[in-house]
Write a structure and sequence with these properties.
Length: about 425
């Protein structure tokens, strides 16, 4: 599947004819990624387009100018970036009022008043819908514009849908369900991932109910058919079913060697040509201990996974959470941190079987560490500054050693989230 099938009309390099060697521009939609369409529940629509500039001989720098033509045909004010050299730049746009339709992004490279290169890209603006579930630029699931970290229960639909959120499951993966019964009262705190019904009326009714989080495709309702029938919900591609077309990749992982499984997930994300978000489908507690599965779930999120789903093994939602040692509750508490972007700096660890990353949330940096082994250890995190850390769950201060090295004691299969603070901000003890 090519990017054009996602609906993004990528830039055409159109340098000025008389100065064809002066510069080259490539323009692509940078925001958002979901099927090349802009979705929003707000009256203000924000986005950006990415411009890659390559200057020819004789040009040291140019002025980049970008304009947006709205679906109504109105051209907005130009965004100007002087002194641009070889490289990639993001030119943002904000639409205060907008209509559905194509949004055209045009970029120009100027040497004084002379246009040396132009490029353009087009993205579709979707009308707003009260039931929409889409994806952010970073791959997070957006429910009416609000990002969520899916914590899923894979199994039969429980008799009481409220049992799922009570056990900290916000998503139900019911592969055997062909749509949802229109007579069923659904809990608004839960998103259902079910097989798309072939009947168009039932599919439309399900889509408008607010209960659907994503669809599973079939031979009769393939990805292209679902894109056309319901543009407001993503489609899941299950690797364990050899499915390749979809907006989100659901990858089944083995808990026998969690570190290797997380490495496989990271490799799959890096090799995905479309840059799609990946969710991890984890085994049931019958296949591995709850503490092992809990560490694996956090490790998947630290590695960049955008959601985790636990096989139920026939357990009820509260029974599954109990068997997982309360892991869904802890994941739910960490969800804002798991959704947060990586900090500009990175950390490395000396120990095998340990994964760590630094996330940035509300201007603070947080260190997340997961021990994926059955041995207690002290993790050596390198690349930090002259700061100390406080454990979010216990409030315990963890002193930083000299040279930007933080030593974090870890129990077997444990995970810790630490906020990094200047030394005079860290409480004693």
């Amino acid at each position: 599947m090519t990017r054009n099938r996602l609906g993004v009309l990528l830039a055409m390099i159109v340098p000025a004819a008389a100065v064809a060697q002066d510069a080259a521009l490539d323009c692509q939609v940078a925001s958002p990624r979901y099927r090349g369409s802009l979705y929003s529940t707000m009256m203000t629509l924000e986005g950006a387009f990415r411009v890659t500039l390559a200057l020819g001989d004789g040009l040291d720098a140019v002025t980049l100018a970008g304009t947006v033509t709205e679906p109504s045909g109105t051209e907005g004010d130009a965004k100007v970036l002087p002194g641009a050299m070889d490289g990639t730049y993001h030119l943002p746009f904000i639409l205060r009022q907008y209509e559905p339709g194509p949004l055209v992004l045009r970029a120009r490279a100027l040497d004084g008043d002379r246009v040396v290169a132009t490029a353009s890209a087009t993205v579709n603006v979707m009308p707003r819908a009260p039931h929409e579930v889409t994806l952010s630029d970073a791959g997070a699931l957006l429910v009416q514009g609000v990002p969520v970290f899916p914590i899923g229960y894979a199994g039969a639909v429980p008799q009481r849908a409220g049992a799922l959120p009570d056990a900290s499951f916000g998503l139900l993966l019911a592969e055997d369900e062909m749509g949802l019964s229109p007579q069923r009262i659904w809990d608004p705190r839960v998103l259902a991932v079910v097989t798309a019904p072939q009947d168009g009326e039932r599919l439309a009714a399900n889509a408008a109910s607010g209960a659907i989080g994503a669809w599973l495709a079939t031979d009769e309702r393939d990805y292209a058919s679902l894109m056309q029938a319901d543009p407001y919900h993503p489609v899941i591609a299950r690797t364990y079913q050899d499915e390749t077309e979809g907006d989100v990749v659901l990858m089944a992982l083995d808990a026998e060697d969690p570190a290797s499984s997380i490495a496989d997930l990271a490799r799959a994300m890096g090799e995905d040509a479309l840059g799609r978000p990946h969710w991890a489908l984890l085994p049931s507690p019958q296949a591995a201990t709850g503490e092992r599965l809990a560490a694996l779930a956090v490790g998947c999120a630290v590695a960049g996974g955008r959601g985790v789903v636990f096989r139920s093994g026939g357990l009820t939602p509260p029974g599954l959470t109990e068997a997982l040692d309360g892991a869904p509750h802890r994941l739910s508490a960490l969800a804002p941190l798991l959704l947060a972007p990586y900090a500009p700096r990175a950390t490395t660890v000396d120990e095998d079987g340990v994964i760590a990353a630094i996330k940035r949330l509300d201007f603070d940096d947080y260190l997340i560490v997961a021990n994926l082994t059955d041995a207690a250890t002290t993790v050596t995190c390198r690349g930090l500054g002259p700061e100390d850390a406080v454990d979010l769950m216990t409030g315990q201060a963890v002193a930083s050693a000299e040279g930007g090295v933080l030593r974090v004691p870890m129990a077997p299969w444990a995970t810790r989230a630490l906020i990094l603070k200047e030394r005079d901000e860290v409480p004693n003890g």
